[in-house]
Prior knowledge:
The chain has helices at residues 76-79, 105-111, 149-161, 183-192, 214-220, 222-229, 242-256, 259-271, and strands at 12-21, 31-37, 50-56, 65-74, 83-89, 92-94, 101-103, 118-125, 139-144, 168-173, 196-201, 235-240, 275-279. By secondary structure, the protein is α/β, with parallel strands linked by helices.
Amino acid sequence: MRVEDLDLGTRWPAKLVANTPLTPPEAREEVRELLFEVDDPERDFRAGQSVAVAVAGPHEFGQQQHVRLYTIARTPAELGPGRFTLCVRRCTFLDPYSGERFPGIASNYLCNLEEGSELPLAGPMGLPFLIPNDPNTPLLIIGLGTGIAPFRAMLRELYEERGWRGEVMLFHGARTGLETLYSGDVAEIAERAAGLSTVSVVSPRPAWGDPEDLSAAIREHRDEVWQLLNEPEIHVYMAGLTWVGEQFDAALAEAAGGSEAWDARKEEIKAAGRWMSLLY
């Protein structure tokens, strides 16, 4: 889904009810959860869908609005009709020529938004992360950084509404433990969810700004992951930055004994409609 292809013609107002930090002050990155409320109780959202935020300009390169997509973290099924949350990381961007660092337009706008503010949103956009009908189906879930946001809602649906019995393996984390999002929620669900195993992924060199090492985490659990991926009805869900998919493919090519073998298995899962990703 490309931002430039989005239909932003139909927008609806949302009121910010709460703007809460998810990371402690000492963390290198700031992530906040924004709780919104809309007047239309019939407006629904599902895990894996996003809303579009348009920040009015003019901006540096002359555009009249700056548009970014943000994934739904908590849904009306948990919070009540007309309520949902977005998980927002305060971003900065490094100019490759000057070396100067600039604040991200949309993320800083949202992180600084005051409670009681109203803004127009568009969506929801994108297909939800559809859950199989059979509660015995095995699932592999990868959600790093803010990519864990849609899976928090999905895990609650699996175990609180569906009574899931199939094997579920979740890789989640951030550069450091301080920046890992919803870790308490994940731990609380894992304690009472039979069949759910979780793997925490962190950076080997967070002080250098290195990202989480998903490849190393998969290598450590290579046999379990490869066995799970060869289950006939396996469903794969992935969310995060584009490098998450790249690291995943590299690690699985090793596990499969080569990129051709992994590409073939991946295409089988995709062709069956059992591969869902939200990479940005």
